[in-house]
Amino acid sequence: MSSIKQRAVSSEQKQQRISQILNAAANRFSHQDYIDIRLVDIASDVGITKAALYRYFRTKETLFLALYEQQLSLLGERAKDALASEALVPALTKAILSVPLYSKLTAILHTILERNLTVEEAVNFKQLMIMRMSGLVDSLAPHQDLPRDALIQRLLMLHQCIIGAWANCHPSVVVQEAFVKHQELTVFDLSYQAMLNLHISSLFNIET
What we know:
Oligomer: single chain
CATH architecture of the largest domain: Orthogonal Bundle
Distance between the termini: 44 Å
Number of strands: 0
């Protein structure tokens, strides 16, 4: 990963540094669990010290909330493109699956990432979520004859479904091994894509 060799000074350099930190966090989170990721390792990936990383993110939680906001923004872009040419259920499912870190972060959002925040940080994050959700509502509106408040409610309910579906469809390594060894346990081996299709179809009252 290329990095700024000296301390970031200009606004452009600081934004570049933030992007590098978020990219390093995303790379580690794509193959590690949150609990196993250390800030010192992310800093090392970027080529800075842990103390330097703290100039940009006060805690591990605020770093991963920034990553969540980035992934939510990416989801909005992917959903907009997909919904422009496909039906709602396959388009929204496709968009969510194309941004796997969004689902993985959503699964730990309320129980881990929103802890240890100041009130100001919590307000700022929730306001960013509202802004991103507004973009998703705009993309969904042509597909559903519902008021904006109702569409927002559907998206919040989908958010809740994703929390449960991701956890159920991505069991631990030990549980996965149990599925392989005991055929009768495969009833618990669920497809995340199938679960998304079912939840989206149900929430938006669409028969599949």
